[in-house]
Structure formats: C-alpha cells, structure tokens
Specification:
The complex is a heterotetramer, with two copies of chain A (147 residues) and two copies of chain C (110 residues). Chain A contains five helices and five strands; from the N terminus they run E-H-H-E-E-H-H-E-E-H. Chain A has helices at residues 14-27, 34-55, 89-93, 107-114, 137-146; strands at 3-10, 63-71, 74-81, 117-123, 127-135. A five-stranded antiparallel sheet of chain A has the order 1-2-3-5-4. In chain A, helix 1 (14-27) runs antiparallel to helix 2. The longest helix of chain A has 22 residues, at 34-55. The longest helix of chain C is centred in the N-terminal third of the chain and has 17 residues, at 22-38. Chain C has 110 residues and is an alpha/beta fold. Chain C has helices at 22-38, 56-69, 81-89, 103-109, and strands at 2-8, 11-17, 43-50, 74-79, 98-100. In chain C, helix 2 (56-69) links the parallel strand 3 (43-50) and strand 4 (74-79). Chain C has one domain (2-94): STAS domain (Transcription Regulator spoIIAA, 2-Layer Sandwich). The radius of gyration of chain C is 13 Å and the shape is globular. Chains in contact: A-B, A-C, B-D. The interface between A and B is medium-sized, with 21 and 21 residues. Strand 1 (3-10) of chain A pairs antiparallel with strand 1 of chain B, so a sheet runs across the interface. The complex binds adenosine-5'-diphosphate (ADP) (2 copies). Residues 46, 50-51, 54-55, 81, 83-86, 92, 97-100, 103-108, 128 of chain A line the site of one adenosine-5'-diphosphate.
Amino acid sequence: MKNTVKMEFLSVPDNVGLARVAIAAIAGQAPFSLSEIDEIKVAVSEAVSNAIIHGYHSRPDGWISMTAILDKQGLNVIIEDFGAGIADIEQARQPSYSSDPERMGLGFVFMESFMHELHVESTVGKGTRVEMQRFSRIQGELSRDVQ
Amino acid sequence: MKNTVKMEFLSVPDNVGLARVAIAAIAGQAPFSLSEIDEIKVAVSEAVSNAIIHGYHSRPDGWISMTAILDKQGLNVIIEDFGAGIADIEQARQPSYSSDPERMGLGFVFMESFMHELHVESTVGKGTRVEMQRFSRIQGELSRDVQ
Amino acid sequence: MTIVHTVQGNRILVAVHGDLDLQTASPLREALDELLDRYRDKGLVLDLSEVNFIDSSGLGVILGRYKRMAGRGLSLTGVKPNVRTVLELAGITAIIPVSDARPSTKDQHV
Amino acid sequence: MTIVHTVQGNRILVAVHGDLDLQTASPLREALDELLDRYRDKGLVLDLSEVNFIDSSGLGVILGRYKRMAGRGLSLTGVKPNVRTVLELAGITAIIPVSDARPSTKDQHV
Ligand SMILES: Nc1ncnc2c1ncn2[C@@H]1O[C@H](COP(=O)(O)OP(=O)(O)O)[C@@H](O)[C@H]1O
Ligand SMILES: Nc1ncnc2c1ncn2[C@@H]1O[C@H](COP(=O)(O)OP(=O)(O)O)[C@@H](O)[C@H]1O
C-alpha cells in the first residue's frame, strides 16, 4: 500500500491523459472505489491542464512534474510547473474566475470538490505547485478501529 | 508525436503494472498498433520485474527509473535500477539462463524479441540500465517515402 | 476522440466516443461548430454513452455550443454517473436537459 | 487477479481474471497448488479468456504447475492472440495444449 511515484513530462495536451491513466493505476493500489478514482482523475486532469494552458501558455516544451504518494491515509498528489506563476492565488481560486475568457474558471473548484485538501503555492515567473490530498475512507475507518 | 516522460517509482511488484499502463499510454501517442503496444508492454514488464527481483532482491525500497522518449522514429525506453548489477551480461542474456532456479531465464529473450534494439549496461554493486528501442513501422514507411 | 453524426428530423444527433479533455476540446469544438453551421435550423443532441471522462475543458466545449446555439435546443443523452457528477457540479444540469446512460445501451454496444 | 474454480469429472476448471505478472504470480501459484493438492487425481484446465496480459513471471507459474503435475494433464483455453504470442515464444504451445479465445466466449461473458 505504501508507494511513491514521481513523473516528469512535457507540456503537451496528450500528457493530460497520461497523467490520468497513471494516477488511476496508482490510486488503484489503495482501497479507493472506482468512483473515487474517477474523481481523483478529474482533479489531476485540471491541475495538469492548468500547468499546460496557464503555466506554459500552451507551449509544448515546458516540464511538468507529478508526484504521487500513497500511504495508509490515502493519496497525496503534487503537480508542479515552472512557468508563468499566479499573481493572486485567492482570486484565481474563486469559482468562475479565469484569466482566459474562453475558459470557465472551474478547475480549482473541481480540485477542491474532488479532493479533501488543496494547497496552492505560486511565484510569478517561477511556477506553480498544487498539492492535493484524498483520504482513503476505508483506511480511515480501519485506523479508527485500531486506535 | 514528440514526447518525453520520466518516471521514478519504488521496487514494489504493484509498480510493474503501473509501468505497463504508463508505457501503453505513451506508446498510444505514436502510430503503434494495439498488438505492437502489447509487445512493448511485455518488454517493459520484464525489465521492471528484473529490477525488482534481481536488482533489489525483492526489497521494496529501491528506486527504479523509466524514461520513455517518443519521436518520429518510434519509442525509446530506458529502465534503470541502482541495485545489485550483473557480473556477466553476455551470460545473463542467454536464453534460459537465470540466476534464480525458480525463474525461466526468458526476460531478456522477450525484450529482444519484442523490441528492435536492446542495450544492457551494468556495474556490480551500482545497478543496471536497459535501453530498448521499438521503431514505429508506419513512420518508417513514411520516412522512406520522404527520402 | 471520434464522433459520428446523424441528422434526424429537426435535430443533429452526435455520438461522441472518447475522453473530453484539453486534448480533445479543440477537435470536438471544430467538428460541432461545422455541423451547427451546416444545419443552421436544427437542434443538437450529444450522445455521451461512450464518454468515460469529462473535465472543465470538455465542459467548456459543451457550454460554448449552448451559448452559440441560443434557442436552438441542446440536450445530452447517455450520461454516465461520473460524467453527471461533473456536469452537476458545474451547474450544467440546471440549464441543459441531461438523460442517463441506460444499462441496456451498454449491452447493445458490445 | 481473481480465480474461480469448478470441478468437472476428472478435471479442475480454473477461470483466471487479470494480468499474470510478478505481482500476481505468487497468489496464483498458491491457489493452483492448493487445488492440485486437494484434488490429487484430477487434471487442470486454465481458462485464460479474461487474461489480457502475461509475461515470463506468469508463464513461470504455468510451467511450474506443468512440471509438478507430471502426467496429470494440463491445458489452456480461451487464449487471446497476444497471450498466445508469449506462450509460443516460450515454446509452451509445443508441450501444453492451447486453444484460442472464441469470439463468442467474450460476448457471453459481457
Ligand atoms: N499552473 C498555473 N499557472 C499559472 N496560472 C494558473 C495556473 N493554474 C491556474 N492558474 C490561474 O488561475 C485561474 C483559474 O484557474 P481554474 O480555476 O483552473 O480555471 P480555468 O483553467 O478555467 O481558467 C486561471 O485562469 C489562471 O489565471
Ligand atoms: N536488473 C537486474 N539486476 C541484476 N541482475 C539482473 C537484472 N536483470 C537481469 N539480471 C540477471 O540476468 C539473469 C537473466 O535475466 P532474465 O533473462 O530476465 O531471466 P530471469 O528473470 O527469468 O532470471 C537474471 O537471472 C539475473 O541474474
């Protein structure tokens, strides 16, 4: 059940699907239900898409890193880019806020809704780090029994 | 079609499946047929299993790295461990040779059969690096037309 | 992602196959806009029975077509539970008619 | 990986579901050995119609049971094309009877 996987990939749209497939395979090693895994996939898809679109302005040559840590608490995912950064994180996290008129501003909403914790750190011109935690309910129940 | 993905994961048997799922998603970005992808999965499965069993003697705390590079030639995969190493690579690559009486000694045979090129580098006590290339046939034909 | 369309009476029926995300958003948007331009008086039914994944980039395409179509009529059918969860969270089920994937639909397609 | 077994006349029919690799090799080996010990006079038929992947770790389990069973009779059914490729490369098709997945089998299972 304990596992750590680090991935680095280029900012091409193809890799959004790769990140989803990988996170599903990793989450599948923990006692998550299929619908929980579906939700984790949405959160990861949003964070990786943001790194491509906003972090690297859709240029295909930026690096994105995804680190997934599984332990008995659940799954921790860190997605990082080394691109544009966010000037005002609080504003960025508002529902419906998007710096791109073509987009809906729902990415952070989905990450918050589908994960149990979300931390965003960003420096303009340096990049953005999104850390998300999803607790495994079954494990939560087990560890409560143990205590 | 151009892509580079680097992964690092722990030497737990669960991650053999993860490596297969990831390589299938990456290979799926190139013009490989489903049966070609199935063969690439076998080769990757063998190399990652070897890193776990032979490189780390089935200890779960070793790091394995997998790098996949897609270009118009096809797919290049490098699988590396930092474990036991191989004293005699030529002997290790012989069909039916295994240092483990329970195993069949077919891992390298499958890697050679299912990939177009295989290079093995190893240093006892430092680790092993397996590099495998699978050419994309469709691209091969296209590039012939271009010349 | 692949799409197959049929024109039936006053509606364009489009069956979408694949994940709706950043990668497939542009080709889907272009394909749908082409159909909406070609059949200017018809409504649109998107059959999502072969869509296993959607995120905000995919939703953006659907909502964008909704706005563009004004009163022409857009509905979604064959919506799987996980896709519905995403549509609901975005408030799309309140403005666009959405019907579920019927269990029988899946059997027929295999 | 999951397995389901049925005893029919003089053979144990075992349906395997999942990938046969390093991760599943030990549980599969143990489950099969337990059955072979329980039904000492019976042959073994492995139904691989739900096996989409096998590598040398998975093959090792099959070949190990073959050796252990001596003359008791082992055969593989429902073998998919990519699994067959691996079995052939290992020379297993020369010593163990192997029959293909019938297209109809898949339909029935869905
Ligand atoms: N990785 C990132 N790099 C730079 N800016 C980002 C990043 N992620 C999010 N943002 C900013 O936060 C805003 C809101 O993000 P989000 O809620 O995902 O909505 P959307 O992607 O639809 O714009 C974006 O419009 C963008 O300005
Ligand atoms: N990553 C590795 N680290 C150390 N030794 C290895 C590694 N890969 C292969 N070997 C050696 O090469 C031998 C042959 O490997 P292989 O053909 O895959 O067969 P098998 O895994 O069945 O033993 C192994 O038995 C082992 O001694």
